[in-house]
């Protein structure tokens, strides 16, 4: 869906985005992660046509439309990190205004407005003035506004910044809902736990460079050097440790009283076969589980911070 | 056929109409016109009221229209740049501008929408002031055609002033900076057009073709407009200035209403240039917008 090739943005000698290449598949919920000043917002602004790139290309779908062209703008729905609203403008008028900015007819906008307000749970606020809504409601309204012209790609830049916990949960649910509908979503956020729950894939940026990108579980595994597996046994530990050391692709990380932590660099099937062999060797297994990667520690590891 | 209004114009008028500012603006505008009218009447009364005066009151009353019209032009000259200067910079301050730029509206349509909404707002005032202006009909001295030409000229002038305001708004982040810049540009235009003739006058030279710069001066345009309405002559024809003073082209343009139309065309040309500059400045795909952001970034570092 979204193809970014060798994207570069220079501000004089300072390089904000350095040769970034990325692909977001259709229907994916892609999380953009990175510390402040990493270049996430600059990348998003270039994709949305709000900033001119110094080099590289951006393509959405099969079209060859240039960034900033009408065709490209029709394919993107953009929700900025912070946005203002107009005084004395009602929710339905707000939607109507932006709909007409995309050349839509008022009758079509009115129909879509009802559906979208229902989707973002703001139906009862249709006649309210926009400036009287809470921050969370405004954010959801902005998502509805961004979806009005039915874009192929929805881009959200820090949509949860400044929201209270309840509003964050509502926003998360809304995004999950949109994802289940098949929308391709790109979201940049600092709240890594939420991203790891929601996203199919992530891209980690630091100092203008894309450090890594891909399916979230693959990245976790790659960073950890394999699958981190906890093996709990009721039998004696010594033969189990010996057996593990003899297994190919298995590294014993730590041994506790009844628990063994190993790193398995093989496939899922290889892990299943290992369980089978343990049972055959009469190891009394009480627990066997794969440790879920922690995006925060991965992020700190990849961006050079201490964990 | 359904007319599709520029969404920015519709939104701006909707928002403005719900604000008390518009009502108070109309009230103050009419108040200034009424006070001008009463002051003019008092002056006329004192001129012809004397028992020794042989003047006919009607010979003075015909000047009511130009006096009221000039006050109206003055208010438009003052208000339009203020309204339009805060149009784009106001969107930037409110942080609504980026979303606007991601829509299918082209930068030129955004700029034009902003000018048009400012001009339409000022036309509310002009229409509200019509009953006061209509008093001059009672005493005569002007025709319906003159009133129509006046309104066309005023609208043109409002668009010109609005284009300066929007251009300055496009190059500023803060509305107050944009307002100051607008008035600076305004006075530079007025001052620069007078400069060549002033220099020639200081050095004791004939005016030559230096009056041609006045074609770009909206003030001189309106002077010429009222001269034509009141006397049917041009400011620059032989009856008003020595024909030997002015150059060939100035003399040529001072025939009939030619000067007025050429001047109108020059003002339209300047308006188009200002609008294009404003559209270029807000277009994120041009380097100007990026340069502004870079300066801001350096400032915050």
Describe the protein.
- The complex is a heterodimer of chains A (307) and B (301).
- With 307 residues, chain A is of the alpha/beta class.
- Chain A folds into two domains: 2-220, Rossmann fold; 225-296, 2-Layer Sandwich (Alpha-Beta Plaits), CATH 3.30.70.
- Chain A has helices spanning 40-47, 70-75, 91-101, 106-119, 135-147, 165-180, 192-198, 216-224, 237-246, 268-280, 295-302, and strands spanning 2-11, 14-24, 29-33, 55-60, 76-79, 153-157, 184-188, 201-206, 209-215, 227-233, 250-255, 259-264, 285-290.
- In chain A, strands 5-6-7-3-8-9 form a six-stranded mixed beta sheet, sandwiched between helices. Chain A has a four-stranded antiparallel beta sheet with strand order 11-12-10-13, with helices on one face.
- In chain A, strand 6, helix 6 (165-180) and strand 7 (184-188) form a beta-alpha-beta unit.
- The mean pLDDT of chain A is 84.
- With 301 residues, chain B is mostly helical.
- Chain B has one domain.
- Chain B has helices at 7-17, 20-48, 57-61, 64-94, 97-101, 107-128, 130-133, 135-139, 144-170, 175-202, 218-231, 248-253, 258-282, 287-300.
- In chain B, helix 9 (144-170) crosses helix 10 (175-202) and helix 11 packs antiparallel against helix 13 (258-282).
- Chain B is globular.
- Residues 297-301 of chain B have low confidence and may be disordered.
- The chains are: A alpha/beta (307), B mainly alpha (301).
According to DSSP, the number of beta strands of chain A is 13
Estimate what percentage of residues of chain A fall within beta strands. Answer: 25-35%
Helix/strand class of chain A: alpha/beta
Summarize the main sheet of chain B.
none
Assign an overall shape of chain B: globular
Helix content of chain A: 25-40%
Structural descriptors:
heterodimer, A: 307 residues, alpha/beta, Rossmann fold, Alpha-Beta Plaits, 2 domains, four-stranded antiparallel β-sheet, 37% helix, elongated, B: 301 residues, mainly alpha, 14 helices, disordered C terminus
